[in-house]
Write a structure and sequence with these properties.
Length: 193
């Protein structure tokens, strides 16, 4: 899975997104930056495997979207990120989009000025994130239509697994996907199904 570090090039302040594993490698990514926070795109265990260790090492606030998982795991989140929340990283601003479907607490971190989006498991190069119920899949369709497709074509999406991609290159495939009747489907979907 992909962890990310977002760094303000002017102030070197940074945030760590999804500390899934390998704390030493994550610490290396953060070298010569001043970590401000750890942010979770969602609460699946593969995205938080090194969370406890990285909190111990960095001693910075943990930020995540509220939801049943975060309560259940007693994560001691320091700041809840609701839809529309803004996180300052030095001179840069990250806007939070709530993008449920894959999980109820899934968020995307968008730097509108630089046209980049850390999307967690909301969307991948090949399709939307896996859903575990018909309802979850229907919510994914709504998220794609109402949120993802409103972003600009030049947005580069950085997903939780696999390669990054340009949203404009996927727009036609996502629209075609939304125009199809998927019945009572849920699970692993691909844009061309
Ligand atoms: Zn996930
Ligand atoms: Zn994942």
């Amino acid at each position: 899975m992909n962890a990310y570090v977002l760094v303000c090039s002017k102030t070197r302040k940074s945030v760590l997104v999804d500390p899934g594993a390998e704390p030493d490698a994550l610490e290396k990514l953060l070298l010569k930056t001043e970590p401000m926070a750890i942010i979770l795109t969602h609460t699946h265990s593969d995205h938080m495997g090194a969370l406890t260790e990285m909190r111990k090492r960095l001693k910075v606030p943990l930020m995540a979207h509220p939801g049943p998982h975060t309560d259940m795991m007693n994560l001691k989140v320091n700041r809840w990120l609701d839809h529309g929340a803004r996180v300052k990283v030095g001179k840069q601003t990250i806007t939070i989009y709530h993008t449920p479907g894959h999980t109820t607490d899934q968020i995307c971190l968008v730097d509108e000025k630089h046209h980049l989006a850390v999307v967690g498991d909301t969307i991948f190069d090949g399709g939307p994130g896996r859903t575990r119920s018909v309802e979850g899949f229907q919510i994914t369709l709504k998220t794609l239509r109402d949120i993802i497709l409103t972003w600009s074509d030049q947005t580069i999406c950085y997903p939780g697994h696999g390669p990054s991609f340009c949203l404009g290159d996927k727009r036609k495939a996502i629209e075609a996907f939304l125009n199809k009747d998927h019945g009572s489907f849920f699970g692993d979907a691909t844009w061309d199904m």
